[in-house]
Amino acid sequence: EAQVTQNPRYLITVTGKKLTVTCSQNMNHEYMSWYRQDPGLGLRQIYYSMNVEVTDKGDVPEGYKVSRKEKRNFPLILESPSPNQTSLYFCASSQTGTLAKNIQYFGAGTRLSVL
Amino acid sequence: DAKTTQPTSMDCAEGRAANLPCNHSTISGNEYVYWYRQIHSQGPQYIIHGLKNNETNEMASLIITEDRKSSTLILPHATLRDTAVYYCTAIPGGGYQKVTFGTGTKLQVIP
Asked: Could you report the per-residue pLDDT of A60-109, keeping only the tens digit for each?
């Protein structure tokens, strides 16, 4: 089954304790992206990757890191989490380069609470 | 990337057509209009997309104005399961770059 898998689904942590949220897709998609969702603010893009070893900032990259060493994986790293990073996070992937077929597939989300 | 604006919320009676507008007045010629919806806090789900012609699929219809500055998503016979937040966004053809979703429209389908 084609899917985007995020882990963990729920995470409670404390300020300053490094964490990683994993994202994996099995569709051989070039493009992957991370979003955060907060009440009243909609979906905001954190980072995206056009392909392996190619990453770029979205609208809200501060406090986050990403890496794209393999095509299928795109982990989100919070080196020193703070309470303002408490949010619902989504990973997404898409094929690229095929005209008019850039449909993003989203994971189920990771709900993060930073105390 | 074009900025999109949508009403914050809308109501629709069950069985009636739901018409959700989106303004994208700064859209450029190579950007497609995409619509997604999010039910509760699940991952957003693709609905439909188009460039300048009207489009229809099994989920919805998309009407894009001739000047491409706005579009309307139509759910022809809304059901309670269509209650969700609907997002429109503009994405360049040929590949993604930075993507802006905005805050979307909360559609409440009323029995």
From this structure: 999 999 999 999 999 999 999 999 999 999 999 998 765 546 889 999 99
Residue B8 token pair: 């914050």
Burial bucket for residue B72 (CB in 10 Å: 0-12, 13-18, 19+):
middle
Collapse the DSSP code of A43 into the 3-class scheme (helix H, G, I; strand E, B; otherwise coil) and give the result. Answer: strand
Q: How far apart are CA B60 and CA B54, in angstroms?
A: 11
Q: At A36, list the tokens.
A: 């955060």
- With CA atoms as reference, the chain B residue closest to A34 would be B99
B16: distance to nearest CA of chain A, Å? Answer: 27
User: What six digits make up the tokens of B74?
Assistant: 């139509």
Which distant-in-sequence residues (6+ apart) come within 8 Å of B3 by Cβ? B24, B26, B100, B102
Contact assessment for residue A47 and residue A56, using Cβ atoms and an 8 Å cutoff: yes
Distance CA B81, CA B75 (A): 12
Tell me the shortest Cα–Cα distance from A111 to chain B, in angstroms: 10
Q: pLDDT of B59-104, one tens digit each?
A: 999 999 999 999 999 999 999 999 999 999 988 876 667 888 888 9
Instruction: Dig out the tokens for B91 from the structure.
Output: 């994405």
Interface of A with B (CB under 8 A): 4, 31, 33, 35, 37, 40-45, 48, 50, 56-59, 88, 90, 92, 94, 96-97, 99-100, 102-109, 111
Six-digit token string for B37: 């919806």
Residues A74, A23 contacting (CB under 8 angstroms): yes
